[in-house]
Amino acid sequence: MQTWFSNTKEGLIKPGRPFVKMHGLRNDFVIVDGRQEPFCPSTKEIIHICDRHEGVGADELLIVEPPKNPETYAFVRIINPDGREVEACGNATRCVGWLLLKECNQKEIRIQTMGGVLTCSLAGEKQVSVEMGQIMTDWQDIPLSKKMDTLHLNIGTGPLNDPVGMNIGNPHAIFFVEDVDAVDLQKYGKTLQTHPIFPEEANIGVAQLLTPDTLKLSVWERPGTLTTACGTGACVAVAAAHRRGLTREKCMTVIMPAGSVVIELKDQNIAVMTGPVEFCYLGYLL
């Protein structure tokens, strides 16, 4: 009995571009190596790849390219399901960092994204630490559409008011509440994400301080999804808690719907994130 796979020589199914599927705390990615053969999909193709009904399905498409900086191992493009390229993603960096660390058999490498150069290191079995770079707090760096106190942004809707504005390769607004679970972020996220104060839109985080070294966090991400985990969001939530004087702990556990990461704040407002990665499968884009 013939199968689809037994007919590949006849052309019914031809292997296409190889990809790796991975996830970090259920934040999942299609990863394509474009170092030997460039991979430049159109917006339509990106939307199709990330579509969970017609494509592979992913929160983002990651394309590994040759390094643009001689001091880095590779350049990684991070592309949202709508085709928009973004500057940073903590969970994505852990996943692609793990692949590249295994490839070169090194304990530490530096990779470059649109958001800057990030240092990745193995921290255990399928655990990766990423030095996510400097957290920026000036209004021009977030960016905002006008000058405003970024420690107390004068915006809000419903139960969410008075956020902290920050940037760690991508823009964030962090709202502190007494009970994260009581906030319907699905209802309020889109309005805040597209607020006129954010010319490039923003990721919206809702954080609750459980103990001096533990935060609970939920994040509404660009381009408009309630994510199970957000690495950059976890970094800025810890930094925002420090800016507000809610804690003095430099190393904190951040609990998100899909699991936890550990965030350490170092000198010069540098954030280091440590968390899990999971390999899902290999495949071909037809």
Walk me through what this model shows.
By secondary structure, the protein is α+β, with helices and mostly antiparallel strands. The protein has two domains: 15-133 and 275-285, Diaminopimelate Epimerase, Chain A, domain 1, CATH 3.10.310.10; 135-265, Diaminopimelate Epimerase, Chain A, domain 1 (Roll), CATH 3.10.310. It is 16% helix and 40% strand. The protein is built from four helices and 19 strands. It has helices at residues 43-50, 90-104, 185-193, 231-243, and strands at 17-24, 27-33, 60-65, 74-79, 85-86, 108-113, 116-124, 127-134, 156-157, 160-161, 164-167, 171-176, 203-211, 214-221, 225-227, 251-256, 259-266, 270-276, 278-285. It has a 17-stranded mixed beta sheet that branches. A hairpin with a 3-residue loop joins strand 11 (164-167) and strand 12 (171-176). The longest helix is centred in the middle third of the chain and has 15 residues, at 90-104. The protein is globular. The two termini are 24 Å apart.
Fraction of residues in β-strands = 35-45%
Helical proportion?
A: 10-25%
Instruction: Say what the CATH topology of the largest domain is.
Output: Diaminopimelate Epimerase, Chain A, domain 1
Mean pLDDT comes to 92
What string, H for helix and E for strand, traces the elements in order?
EEHEEEHEEEEEEEHEEEHEEEE
**Radius of gyration, CA atoms, in whole angstroms:** 19 Å
Overall CATH class of the largest domain: Alpha Beta
